[in-house]
Every structure is written in C-alpha cells, then in structure tokens.
Design goal:
Strand content: 15-25%
Strand order of the largest sheet: 8-9-10-11-12-13
Radius of gyration: 25 Å
Structural class: alpha+beta
Largest sheet: 6 strands, antiparallel
Helix content: 25-40%
Number of domains: 2
Number of strands: 13
Length: 338
C-alpha cells in the first residue's frame, strides 16, 4: 500500500517511518490491534499529508510538531467523549443499537475537511465515514486508503480549478524583501493587524495561514490595462483594481449582506484599511433579521460611498473591464497557474 500511495500522491508529504515499539505502545494504549496492512504502512511512513491543505490522510501514531492531533490522541478524545455521553444517548434513543455504533469498534486514521476517515480494525481496509453529529452514518467511503486519497485529490483539484479559474495565488515567504507595491503593503498590514502585531515586519511562510489570502486575476485579454487583485478571507472578498499595484485603488466588495457589490475609490492606505476592516467587521456579524440586515447594508454603503466620493472616469473604465473578466472567470480559458 505504501508504494501505491507514493505513486498516487506524488506531491504528498510522507513522514519518516514509525518503529515497531511505537506501534506496540499505541496499540496497548488504545487496546486495539492494528490490522496488518496498517501496521505495515506505519513501518514505511508515520503520517501522510496533502500539500494542498496539510490535512492528515494518515495520522502520525503520536503527537509531534507536525501532527498536533495523532492516531493516539484523537481516538482517545473521541472515546472519552463517547463514554461521557453514552448513558444519555442510550436513555434518549433506546431504539438505536448503540453497541454496534460504539466508537471503540472503529479507529480514526485520518480525515480531510472535517470528515474523519475510520476503519474497522477487525474488518477489511475499507474507509468508513465517521460523523460525530450523525452517529448512525457509517457509510463506506472507499475500498481502501489509496482509493480514498485519490478520490479526495481529484475532488480537491476540481474544486480549486472551478474556484480559482482566472486567478493565481500569491505567496510570500519569511525572507521576502520589503513590500514593493501598495497592494503588498496592504496585505502585510492586514496580516499584522489580524495577528495583533505592529508594523509590517512579520513575514509568514504562507500568508493564507492567518486567514487572509491574496490572488491575482489572470483572466484579462492581451492589451487590457491594469491589474486585478483579490483579497479573500472565507466568504469575505475584496477585489482591488489598480493600474500597477499601487494606489489609487478601486475596491469592490462581495459580502453576504450586500445584494449588489459596493464600489469605491481609495487614495491612501488608511482609507483602504478602513473600508476593508469595516466590511470584515460587518461580514462577521451575521443575522437573519431582514430589517437589521438592511440597516447593516445601508451603513456599509455610507462608509464606502459617501466618504470617498465618485470614481475617476478612466480608472473606473479600467476597473469595469477587470471586474467583468473576473465575474466570468468560470468561462475563461485561463487556468490557475497558467
């Protein structure tokens, strides 16, 4: 299985092998005998992660710097959680065969995007869905770990292709030079503010780690002027149209409480930050009350529109083209990274 996984996941991170002593120790602690195929796999690699999201395709046996949650710690946690609520579950739902669903019968070996991959140590290599909120869902997800990983990689690639078609991620590193443009300075400042630091000296290996991501639009046609950048954090998105990466910026918002995207011109960094941080604060304040939602939208409009006035005509025309291209990036021929 190790060789099959190496061939199927050429870009994945395979950590150094575990020892027989480590396997014995974990088996004793969990009172669970690992199936032969899993034991053999651990003797080749003590954990596998995807380079895309670093979620564990295979947990390390024990906690370490690369795996704060391990096969041992995560299964212990789930078992303790089950034990604490077992009597309450049985009393509330006597019709359910809880012994058959008992978490002691399953072993969580990894998982991606909040879905935990489990196996039945006494059964075959099938990967079983373990959903904490739906204990009756024990769907077989794949015939083995290789198939599960391949399926996930293909799905992840498809999602990324659809989401980021016409965009490319921008990553900067610890040893990066000082910001060379206003858009880089803006992102550094947002990261520093989010992390509670001062100045712009913080250099992160991947600026998406504190939640902010920066993308560049690549869906333009030859000869079109300007540059498009996308500041993203979850469902919160600000598009930045600029002539060359420097101020003036035309900002356009895409947040849940605005029926139509807002747009404004900003002339310096404090103005830009105020607009973005105001939107972010409002975006995090979710409500189902229509009247309150309308009030939030109205306030946001005032902050963005009234204070900063009309757009410059030529800059507006350039921004309109850039925004139009990104709106239809799903139909663009450009792919991420091309």
């Amino acid at each position: 299985m190790f060789e099959q996984l190496r061939q199927a996941l050429p870009g994945a991170i395979f950590h150094p092998p575990a020892t027989s002593q480590q396997i014995d120790r974990v088996e004793e602690a969990l009172n669970t005998r690992l199936p032969a195929w899993l034991r053999e796999l651990y003797l080749h690699t003590n954990g596998i992660k995807s380079v895309q999201h670093h979620d564990p395709y295979l947990f390390s046996l024990e906690d370490n710097d690369d795996f704060p949650r391990s096969l041992l710690s995560w299964n212990r946690f789930l078992r303790n959680q089950w034990k604490q609520s077992e009597s309450e579950r049985k009393a509330d739902f006597p019709e359910v065969d809880w012994d058959k669903l008992d978490v002691h019968r399953l072993l969580i070996i990894g998982g991606v995007n909040g879905r935990y991959w489990a196996i039945d140590p006494a059964g075959g290599p099938e990967i079983i869905n373990h959903e904490a909120s739906d204990v009756e869902d024990r769907t077989i997800l794949a015939s083995d770990l290789v198939s599960m990983c391949v399926d996930n990689e293909e799905m992840d690639q498809q999602i990324r292709s659809e989401l980021f078609r016409g965009r490319k991620p921008i990553r900067r590193y610890e040893d990066a030079m000082p910001p060379s443009s206003d858009i880089e300075l803006l992102l550094d400042t947002l990261v520093d503010l989010y992390r509670g630091t001062k100045g712009t000296s913080v250099r992160l290996r991947n600026l998406s780690s504190p939640g902010w991501s920066l993308y560049q639009g690549i869906s333009q046609r030859p000869g079109e002027e300007g540059m498009l950048f996308i500041l993203q954090r979850g469902s919160f998105e600000i598009q930045v149209a600029t002539r060359d990466g420097n101020l003036f910026f035309v900002l356009r918002s895409k947040v849940w409480f605005q029926e139509e995207p807002l747009r404004c011109l900003v002339k310096d960094l404090p103005e830009t930050l105020l607009c973005i941080l105001y939107l972010f604060d409002m975006e995090s304040f979710r409500t189902g009350d229509p009247s309150l939602r309308k009030d939030i939208a109205t306030q946001t409009f005032r902050v963005w529109r009234h204070r900063y006035g009309p757009l410059e005509e030529k800059l507006e025309q350039m921004a309109e083209v850039l925004f139009h291209r990104d709106d239809y990036r799903m139909q663009e021929e450009n792919r991420m990274g091309e």
